[in-house]
Prior knowledge:
There is one protein chain. By secondary structure, the chain is of the alpha/beta class. It has a single domain (about 5-255), classed as Rossmann fold (3-Layer(aba) Sandwich). It contains ten helices and ten strands. The strands form two sheets. Strands 6-7-8-3-9-10 form a six-stranded mixed sheet, sandwiched between helices. Strand 4 and strand 5 (about 70) form a beta hairpin. It is globular and about 55 Å long. The termini are far apart. The structure holds adenosine-5'-triphosphate. Adenosine-5'-triphosphate binds near residues 44, 45 and 57. This is Phosphate ABC transporter ATP-binding protein. GO terms for molecular function: ATP binding; ATP hydrolysis activity; phosphate transmembrane transporter activity. Pfam families: ABC_tran (PF00005). InterPro entries: AAA+_ATPase, ABC_transporter-like_ATP-bd, ABC_transporter-like_CS, P-loop_NTPase, PstB-like.
Amino acid sequence: MSQGIDVTNESIYYGQHKAVEDVNVHINPSSVTALIGPSGCGKSTFLRSLNRMHEVIPGAYVEGGVRIDGLDIYAPGIDPVDVRGHVGMVFQRPNPFPTMSIGDNVLAGIRLNNKKLKKSDADEIVERSLRGANLWEEVKDRLGRPGSSLSGGQQQRLCIARAIAVQPDVLLMDEPCSALDPISTLAIEDLMTELKATYTIVIVTHNMQQAARVSQMTGFFNIDGAGAPGRLVEFAETETIFSNPSEKATEDYVSGRFG
Ligand SMILES: Nc1ncnc2c1ncn2[C@@H]1O[C@H](COP(=O)(O)OP(=O)(O)OP(=O)(O)O)[C@@H](O)[C@H]1O
């Protein structure tokens, strides 16, 4: 049974610079959690700490604990590559491998660990993942065409198919719709609503309407001033954050007074 994500006393650094300070939060399984807040408050940094992508940057490190389904992902002996197998990520700009075929793009993560995939298994994974990403009907007759032959919105759904192909528990999405038109954005939002039955989804978004449409819980990050670390100021049900937040800063942000 999925337990979600537990973050305790987490601070996140880029060398000397503390970018995020003392986050404590429980993220529910099988739901969408949105992270909002002004630019530079550490939303993306926090998101990347949930699958150990943060430490890829030289000098970057994390203090405190992150447990995913009870497992401390920063414990000694835990392989970050394994963690990323359980916690997939979708980025702001769709980033399929442009010359690789649509089918091979879906399989790219799986092939990293399992070079000898049988054709019948590969076909089954490609279809299941593309169906899961609501892209199958649009591409089933051209799986051999390059990833770059798709529209931006289709490419983003291809990236989601690639992320779910490895059957992760958690999907992190960093502004996944910011490079997309409104129709493609709605397609991805609908998809998130479907995927939350199976995955724990955490999304960073600047789009308040999007947070309100897709998420059940919302976290508001803020900074006290230039150079200060970002903090998780308020975390509550999305409806509460948008209609009756406890903190004045949250209310000012969601009502568009700053940010
Ligand atoms: N690669 C990096 N090296 C050093 N500092 C970084 C790096 N990436 C981000 N930072 C710093 O960490 C802080 C938080 O940045 P982050 O990108 O997480 O904020 P954000 O809330 O996601 O912003 P935005 O909404 O603009 O994407 C900022 O002060 C930023 O300058």
